[in-house]
Write a structure and sequence with these properties.
This protein has 379 residues and is an alpha/beta fold. The chain has 14 helices and 10 strands. α2 packs across α4, α3 runs antiparallel to α4 and α9 packs across α10.
């Protein structure tokens, strides 16, 4: 029988570097240390960390402070995808970031990543998390013990900046401005645009929220920003130099500010997520030696081939969208037949049904035409 790209769970390794609120040169130093990682297969980048998922027994390069193997590595990835490590518990944006990072991983490794994503999605459905990245504004105001109100300036018109600006309106700020190099095509109703190079002309504001992208230069609060009572620097690399006449709260500071109730809830959710993940791992272990498992691998082989073809024919579609659409479609189609196949008491019939869908490589690996059923039944 051929090796169909399966790897042992214990071979999975995760190396992680916290990056929240680091300066640009510090983030670049971390990325440089990652070049020593010969087996890097999937890199997940969020505003709080860089995670590398791979397989092998060697230690993580660059003295990564987090290095996990096996189930712990996959559980950690699921926790990140579920938003359990985010400042805002359950924030939805991080799920897409993990999915994007896994999009180009080898199929054998991606199978474990998919289990982490599936467990995270189920936990999200059960918990119905209602907060998003815009609620970082709430966390910052609470940490600074400052009420909402007055004038709010949001640096950056990206997705996160728009969420923070919209949340500012909901919290009752009198004036909310978004600063960017160019006027955004979409912005929350009631938010006013100001050119980034003209923000000092606004005069004093009460709160500044930094949501600039990773490519933006670091700003000097003393010369490049209007006066403010509070600066929330939510960027990675950080948006604002640490020297300032205003109080600065960074994303890293907010990460250290969980109260006892919040921490206890995250611990309980992690335990529940572990149970959801274990159920999927058990199913994978059962399927890996079964006819249904062989069918699943054939379905994934066809999906991967067609995904590559779609990317070549339609390069204008982001690869992560192609990956997400094809994976979701295949999962929806495959789920019910797989469950019914598992429930068949007639194993010979089940194996013959599966055989209809096998590619040439799987048939050859199963021992040639006369012996295929026996080879399948032996599973």
């Amino acid at each position: 029988m051929k090796n169909h790209g399966l790897i042992s769970l214990e071979d999975v390794r995760l190396c992680a570097w916290p990056t929240a609120s680091l300066a640009r040169d510090e983030v670049e130093s971390i990325r440089a240390s990652m070049t020593a990682e010969p087996d890097a297969s999937a890199t997940v980048t969020t505003c709080q960390r860089i995670e590398v998922l791979s397989f092998g027994a060697s230690e993580c390069p660059g003295l990564a402070p987090v290095h996990l193997h096996g189930r712990e590595a996959i559980l950690h990835l699921a926790e990140v995808a579920a938003g359990l490590h985010s400042v805002v518990l359950g924030e939805p944006q991080v799920l897409g970031q993990v999915r994007t990072g896994l999009a180009h991983a080898p199929a054998a490794l991606r199978r474990y990543g998919d289990l982490a994503l599936a467990a995270a999605r189920e936990l999200r459905r059960r918990e119905s998390f209602s907060m998003h990245s815009g609620h970082l504004l709430d966390r910052g105001l609470a940490a600074a013990e400052r009420p909402s109100g007055g004038r709010l300036l949001v640096l950056g018109a990206g997705h996160m900046g728009r969420l923070v600006a919209a949340r500012g309106l909901e919290l009752g700020f009198d004036d909310v401005f978004i600063a960017a190099r160019g006027e955004p095509l979409t912005a929350p109703s009631g938010v006013r645009y100001v050119a980034l190079d003209r923000i000092t002309a606004l005069g004093d504001v009460q709160v500044i929220a930094g949501c600039l992208g990773a490519g933006a230069p670091e700003l000097d609060a003393r010369t490049g920003l209007p006066g403010a009572d509070l600066i929330l620097d939510l960027g990675t690399p950080r948006n604002v130099a640490p020297e300032s006449h205003a109080a600065i709260l960074t994303l890293a500071m907010l990460l250290r500010g969980f109260d006892a109730a919040d921490a206890a809830r995250r611990t309980a959710l992690s335990a529940e997520l572990g149970r959801l993940l274990d159920r999927r791992l058990e199913m994978m272990a059962r399927d890996s030696g079964s006819a249904v498992g062989l069918l699943r691998r054939e379905v994934e082989r066809v999906r991967s081939r067609e995904t590559g073809r779609i990317r070549r024919l339609h390069p204008e579609i982001p690869p992560e969208k192609v990956e997400a659409i094809t994976r979701s479609l295949v999962n929806q189609i495959f789920h019910l037949p797989a469950e019914r196949l598992r429930g068949l008491e007639d194993s010979a019939l089940r194996d013959r049904i599966v055989e209809l869908f096998l590619g040439d490589d799987d048939m050859e690996g199963a021992g040639g035409a006369p012996d295929r059923v026996e080879a399948l039944a032996a599973r």
